[in-house]
Amino acid sequence: MEWTGARYADKPTVEVRIWVDAPPERVWEFVSDVELMPEMSDELQTVEWLDGATRPALGARFIGRSRHAALGEWATTSHIVECEPGRVLAWAVQDPAQPSAIWRFRLEPRDGGTELSQWMQMGPGRSGLCSAIDRMPDKEQKIVFVRMREFERSMTVTLAHIKTLAEA
């Protein structure tokens, strides 16, 4: 687990990894089922494919509805920007050219199983966090740090959940 960057404009990132005792094809079943993600998250409440999509493919879109005690409730549209079955799935939140975040799963065959990583980048496009930073610019680094730690904890739970499902 590591994260980099201190200010929003730095596009800070965080990545979490776990080894799964299952082949990448099996792990992919759960990674690629974005409608399953709310079961693994305190924040993400629902996910719904848009435009008739039913699974990840380049350019496919889905809407995610989230809730956070300090940030309220919101919905975002995500765009699949990388999709290689059994290897990588990534989506850009809101505007793919200026996303408020990018999320990525990577699957690598390792030691008879799969090394699964989840990575995210905050920014460069504006997100709900920017309102808090606008109100308290002197606390930007702390706001970003706290949010990145929340993401790290959530990602750790998500990967552990995927591991449990894939190994069952």
Automatic annotation (TrEMBL):
Pfam families: Polyketide_cyc2
Source organism superkingdom: Bacteria
InterPro entries associated with the record: Polyketide_cyclase/dehydratase, START-like_dom_sf
Protein name: SRPBCC family protein
Originating organism: Streptomyces humicola
